[in-house]
Amino acid sequence: MENSNIPGKMMSLQLKEKVMLYNCYMPFLENGGLFVPSEDVFSLGDEILLAVEIGNHAKRFLPTKVAFINPARTSAHRPKGVGLAFTDLDICIQTKNLIEAELGNHLRDERATFTL
Questions:
Q1: Number of domains present in the structure of the chain
Q2: Which Pfam family, any one, appears in the UniProt record (predicted)?
């Protein structure tokens, strides 16, 4: 029996250090999201199951969609990869809240990230 709710592609991301979490987090998306460096080819709207480890927390599996694509390294700060938008499922909202708690006041930093 096929489960049509499982995305066709899967990616993984380890964010053990706060600076990487800051560089990858996308608070400007409605439900939050993460940038994942990748050499793979994607299309906007692709559904991706993201396995993410944040700090010392247990691995989470998040249904996401490709929100933007950085097709090539544009600078030392913006590697090739995809921005994955979290869905409105509880696991994604909990992960957004976890990331924002981990980053605390760093959310308002003006430093460049991998996204904007």
A1: 1
A2: PilZ
Give the dihedral of Cα atoms 29, 30, 34, 37; nearest 10 deg: -40
Q: How far apart are CA 55 and CA 84, in angstroms?
A: 19
CATH number of the domain bearing residue 29: 2.40.10.220
Average pLDDT (3-17) is: 79
CA 84/CA 13 separation, integer angstroms: 11
Q: For 48-51, which contacts have Cβ atoms below 8 Å and span 24 or more sequence positions?
A: 48/7, 48/9, 48/10, 48/11, 48/82, 48/84, 49/6, 49/7, 49/9, 49/10, 49/11, 50/10, 50/11, 50/12, 50/13, 50/84, 51/10, 51/11, 51/12, 51/13
CA distance 41 to 89: 26
Q: Which residues constitute the domain of residue 62?
A: 9-108
Mean pLDDT score of the chain: 88
